[in-house]
Q: What sequence folds into this?
């Protein structure tokens, strides 16, 4: 499903490692005041002055985290950045810099790596972060991307996973499950394509789901929104592995329980239609599907009025005492223990 | 050459991703004042106060950067940390934190990953740095380690690659080429072992070379030494790809040339003996062999007296005008242009 089946192919070995790095990084600009020195020395130098530095890292591996049969390289580069920025957002911090390391087998020509970097550059531009370093090497088999993101925040702004308290509200940004169903749609199309390479997929009914899978966004806007509403969450985490799994992380680290209400889950109409078509329960998808990169957080009851009419946020439950456990309250009013069934890269083997 | 041919094998999938991370990281202590929050949230939080933050990253890939036939996993973990700390040292900064991401195929049992982490923990302890995060995932084939290191320094202390000026002295710490010859010895033993698995290698004559290859150290001591001598280098780089390649980086970024003197190269007697045995020119090895992780730097002529009797440092040449180019002056007094023949992971395919 690449747009051009016969792209130009330039061997990477012609450039050599340093030639490749120069070629790929020469157009990266410095946008952040805190970046004193970016690419080009043994290390980058950053100046956070009176702010705290926030650091996170993620590894994306071909065949485990992505399938190049339906993930265009530019989207992959973009997504590799976004998943890391999302972790910075989950600390209520502002992303400022990234490092990007890639390992590529020689089946990839230079043009493929350029596509990947075009996606990285697009994300850096979109989110106003500087690419300050990285490593570029060969691999014996697939493609691999390791991104480390840095951010900054005042100490008083930072939100950890361990601050949730009983009676607080459980809130989520955006909607849930769409990225997972986007992946199901793409995997179905891949199977169709393998059987009949001439088939033309009609994906009009799934555009939102596919975009959520192929071009997820980090919710850098939530920090600004919450600041404007004068809300500081008591705990926060991003939803990468699935809502259920993330709720359990928050509860475990905060030593609390929770009740999550099925009827409150924010689900896009396209997800509901597609779940019907696939004969999958939309609630299961919303709870266990990963990769939405929305933010899950808790707020005090006193902040409810500030967000109740805000379309960016949905109150999906409340925090309880630890001994009560973490449960889903279904539409039929039955209480089911939450389990971490989220997407787990280690179980995918 | 693993010490135990029948080690205990526990499947990693039994633990799951979060179980594995907990298991591997539970004993990592926080040692640095600047680490406000380490492992266990979406990101780590660091406080560098009035210091600048220094960031670098490196990727090590099985079959490209290491061969598990002779690289014990514990040594590999140690080395993966050291190569990154070396980059921080090359900025004249103090390493303070690392993130460690690994991808492992299911041919590795839990005990293997524990060995790898034991090496990481040993290095963290040895160099007093905190492990503040990472990612653990599966790979379809080999083992892969991505480390990002952070450090700190006063702005006035930081040394870049671009500050060398004509007439300054070119100085190197330690000795050169031993790590490369250690690798040659190990590769020869591997071939012998493949032909005759019962052969018992006698490596007594190569202990220093092998240690330099399997357990390199980052020269964190150089910053302290130079500070005590009241020397601030004008430019600095670490020797990972080979002296020749690194000199060319310094010259290019500083817009200068240089003369490197063959007779001044610091070479260990064991290297000389082994080069004779292998019928390889020791100068070639000292200039082009990589992975020594020594520091190469330039100082003003006025600082010569401070280091001339110091066993940690060797003056190996001097900086010239850019138009004069970068040359090796041989013992026979001939002038040969320096070329970047260093170890290049992209050419090793």
A:
């Amino acid at each position: 499903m690449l747009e051009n089946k016969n792209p130009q192919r330039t061997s990477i070995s012609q450039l050599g490692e340093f030639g490749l790095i120069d070629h790929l990084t020469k157009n990266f600009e410095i946008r952040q005041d805190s970046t004193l020195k970016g690419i080009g020395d043994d290390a980058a130098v950053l100046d956070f002055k009176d702010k705290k530095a926030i650091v996170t890292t993620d590894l994306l591996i071909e065949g485990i985290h992505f399938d190049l049969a339906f993930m265009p390289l530019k989207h992959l580069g973009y997504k590799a950045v976004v998943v890391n920025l999302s972790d910075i957002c989950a600390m209520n911090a502002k992303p400022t810099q990234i490092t990007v390391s890639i390992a590529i087998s020689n089946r990839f020509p230079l043009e493929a790596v350029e596509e990947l970097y075009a996606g990285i550059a697009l994300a850096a531009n979109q989110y106003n972060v500087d690419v300050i370093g990285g490593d570029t090497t060969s691999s014996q088999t697939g493609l691999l991307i390791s991104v480390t993101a840095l951010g900054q925040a005042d100490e008083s702004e930072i939100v950890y996973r361990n601050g949730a308290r009983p009676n607080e509200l459980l809130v989520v940004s955006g909607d849930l499950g769409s990225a997972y169903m986007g992946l199901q749609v793409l995997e179905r199309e891949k199977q169709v394509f393998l059987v009949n390479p001439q088939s033309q997929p009609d994906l009009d009914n799934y555009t939102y789901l596919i975009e959520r899978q192929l071009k997820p966004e980090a919710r850098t806007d939530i920090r600004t929104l919450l600041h404007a509403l004068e809300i500081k969450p008591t705990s926060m985490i991003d939803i990468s592995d699935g809502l259920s799994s993330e709720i359990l992380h928050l509860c475990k680290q905060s030593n609390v329980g929770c009740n999550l209400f099925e009827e409150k889950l924010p689900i896009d109409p396209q997800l509901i239609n597609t779940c019907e078509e696939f004969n999958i329960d939309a609630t299961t998808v919303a709870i266990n599907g990963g990769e939405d990169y929305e933010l899950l957080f808790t707020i005090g009851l006193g902040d409810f009025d500030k967000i109740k009419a805000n379309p960016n946020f949905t109150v999906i439950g409340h925090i309880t005492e630890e001994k009560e456990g973490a449960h889903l309250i279904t539409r039929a009013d039955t209480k089911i223990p939450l389990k971490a069934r989220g997407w787990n890269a280690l179980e995918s083997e």
